[in-house]
Specification:
The protein has 291 residues and is of the alpha/beta class. The chain has a single domain (7-290), classed as P-loop containing nucleotide triphosphate hydrolases (Rossmann fold, 3-Layer(aba) Sandwich), CATH 3.40.50. Helix content is 44%, strand content 11%. It contains 13 helices and five strands. Strands 2-3-1-4-5 form a five-stranded parallel sheet, with helices on both faces. It is globular and about 70 Å long. The relative contact order is 0.20. Adenosine monophosphate binds at residues 86, 111-114, 142, 146-147, 150-151, 156.
């Protein structure tokens, strides 16, 4: 904006700033409090920046939707994958960032522990069933990555099973991209300390009890094992076709702005256009005037 650039990275697209580099991943080195690319001062002006973004995001989403209506067979689809530890803010992102667009254009799915029916199928079965329709923005609140995260940490299947899933996921995602899906995989990176503060907040406020799950503390006790599983998923599934973005999430205002901006950049880069009329505009103008 008008302010002077703070560093050489200022002005670079967020998709570059938050893109996980190829190679070994060390979770401890990923700063959860950072605010890369944020154009304003901080928390105080985040609502204004995020709202401004909302208007542009909304126009782009409408164009995507219109394209899906006009030509479903060739219409691009967007799939945002949200992963992160408990309290990292998957729900907050859905409310504050995805909530900026028309809910009619959003296909939202929250993945819980698989149901009895789901357990009868391959783990990607329920994922395929939840893919966004043409012109829609699909949101996965948790995803197929749980099948190499909680499943790995809790040994829900043996290692020789989960260890083959990284390649399988890469193949699956490459197939989606080849079919015209645009994937935006976001890892909401919350620190161990901030998670504790957020859990404590939930217990200090009766209106937040519903968000508290005693099981979250058990998962917290396995933090190192989860970080190891996250590092493996990020490292092994960080492909050209479907790269990972790591969103610093200790500051909620940054996290929400960042996912909204990442989505805006994604849509803006898709070469979307308003569909042409499939009727004679001049003729229809006359008909309306005469009606
Ligand atoms: P929440 O997102 O807080 O509603 O919690 C959903 C729960 O479902 C989390 O504890 C996840 O670990 C769990 N979950 C999601 N997917 C799977 C999966 N494929 N296998 C086992 N547990 C899962
Ligand atoms: Mg939870």
């Amino acid at each position: 904006m008008g302010s002077k650039k703070k560093d050489s990275a200022a002005g670079a697209p967020l998709s570059e700033l938050l893109r996980l580099p190829h190679g070994a991943v060390d979770m401890a080195s990923l700063d959860a409090r950072a605010t890369p690319g944020y154009p304003g001062k901080g928390k105080e002006d985040a609502p204004v920046h995020t709202a401004g973004l909302g208007r542009r995001l909304s126009d782009l989403q409408e164009m995507l939707y219109a394209g899906g209506r006009a030509a479903p067979e060739v219409s691009p689809r967007v799939l945002v994958v949200l992963q992160g530890m408990d309290t990292s803010g998957k729900g907050g992102v859905i409310r504050h960032a995805i909530g900026l667009v028309d809910p009619q254009g959003v296909d939202l799915t929250s993945f819980k522990a698989p149901s009895e029916e789901e357990r009868k199928h391959h783990y990607l079965w329920r994922i395929r069933n939840a893919l966004p329709r043409p012109g829609q923005i699909g949101i996965f609140d948790r995803s197929h990555y749980e099948d190499v995260l909680v499943v790995r940490v809790e040994s829900l299947v043996p290692e020789d099973v989960w260890s083959t899933r990284y390649d399988e996921i890469n193949e699956f995602e490459a197939g989606l991209v080849a079919e015209g899906y645009k994937l935006v995989k976001c890892m909401l990176n919350v620190s161990f300390g901030e998670q504790k503060a957020r859990l404590a907040e939930r217990l200090a406020d009766p209106t937040k009890y519903w968000k508290y799950n005693p099981g979250d503390v058990d998962a917290r006790k396995k933090w190192p094992a989860y970080m190891e599983a996250y590092a493996a998923a990020l490292e092994k599934c960080n492909t050209e076709a479907a790269p990972w973005f790591v969103i610093p999430s200790d500051r909620k205002w940054y996290r929400n702005w960042a996912v909204a901006e990442l989505l805006r950049e994604t849509l803006a880069g898709m070469g979307l256009a308003w569909p042409a009329a499939d009727f004679d505009v001049a003729v229809e103008k006359k008909r309306v005037a005469q009606s």
